[in-house]
From TrEMBL:
Cofactor binding summary note: Binds 1 [4Fe-4S] cluster. The cluster is coordinated with 3 cysteines and an exchangeable S-adenosyl-L-methionine.
Name of the top EC class for this enzyme: lyase
Oligomer and partners: Homodimer.
Positions bound to S-adenosyl-L-methionine: F58, C59, D60, G95, S137, P138, K139
Name under which the protein is recorded: 7-carboxy-7-deazaguanine synthase
Segments of skewed composition (Basic and acidic residues): 147-161
Keywords for this protein: 4Fe-4S, Iron, Iron-sulfur, Lyase, Magnesium, Metal-binding, S-adenosyl-L-methionine
Stored SUPFAM superfamilies: Radical SAM enzymes (SSF102114)
Keyword match Cell inner membrane: no
């Protein structure tokens, strides 16, 4: 399956249409090394859907959110494309893949075939599907596309993003249902107070244990140069607060090249 072409972008919010047709808007499908989290370095097939319910100003998959591009594929075609690769791990990512009903169908079919599945999600949707690792990236206040940070306008998405970016009940459901890692994109020390508050609230809300080892701090940066300015700061914060540091291995190796 080729990388999706630059078809006109659609602001996909998630509808029942994909459930009726069994199709998914695929931005790209490729094999690479998992670059982030506890499975960093594991060869994986990445299935990147298009469309997102948030608009982080630093989004590293701009063409799935701010300007969504994609081709529509049946779930059977996606499965066939995955089977062409020699990999046991599949990463469903986006955008926000869980806004599409057919993502649940894909995850069920992948589980039936014995694949290990990771879903990279912003933590605002709880699916009804098997997932081996829920890689949940709650969005902090520093992600909001205010007028001075909006890459595509004058902050028109700021209010919607701020309203939607955190849902404590949904985060608790995810932690209780799945093996979960909480992966925070950290722009600087000023993010830590919000992370600490959110972890405390989540521990109070969820019946499942949230360990410090489940909390990962990841430096913000889409290129090697950008990571160079944040990497050391975030590593020091992980040491200070007792959380895990996660690299962005794919950026270190391939910079911002697509399909990595």
């Amino acid at each position: 399956m080729p990388v999706a072409n630059d078809a006109p972008g659609v602001d996909i919010e998630g509808t029942d249409a994909d459930a009726e047709t069994g199709d998914l808007p695929i931005n790209e499908l490729f094999q690479s090394l998992q670059g982030e989290g506890r499975l960093a370095g594991v060869p994986s097939v990445f299935v990147r859907t298009s469309g997102c319910n948030l608009r982080c100003w630093f989004c590293d998959s701009y063409h799935t959110s701010w300007e969504p591009t994609h081709d529509w594929f049946a779930v059977d075609d996606v499965l066939a494309a995955i089977a062409e690769y020699d990999a046991d791990h599949v990463v469903l990512t986006g955008g926000e893949p869980l806004i599409h009903d057919s993502s649940e169908v894909l995850l069920e079919r992948l589980a039936d075939r014995g694949y290990h599945t990771t879903v990279e999600t912003n933590g605002t949707v709880v699916p009804e599907a098997p997932i081996d690792l829920a890689s949940v990236s709650p969005k902090l206040a520093s992600s909001t596309p205010t007028a001075d940070r909006d890459p595509d306008g004058d902050g028109e998405w700021a209010d919607r993003h701020e309203e939607r970016r955190l849902d404590l009940d949904t985060l608790a459901d995810l932690v209780e249902t799945y093996d979960t890692q909480l992966k925070f994109v950290v722009t600087g020390r000023e993010d830590m107070a919000e992370i600490e508050r959110l972890i405390e609230r989540l521990r109070d809300a969820a019946s499942a244990r949230v360990r410090d080892d489940d909390v990962l701090l990841m430096p913000e940066g889409q290129t090697r140069d950008q990571l160079e300015s944040t990497r050391e700061t975030v590593a020091d914060l992980a040491l200070e607060y007792g959380y895990r540091y996660t690299p962005r291995l794919h950026v270190d190796l391939w910079n911002d090249a697509p399909g990595t």
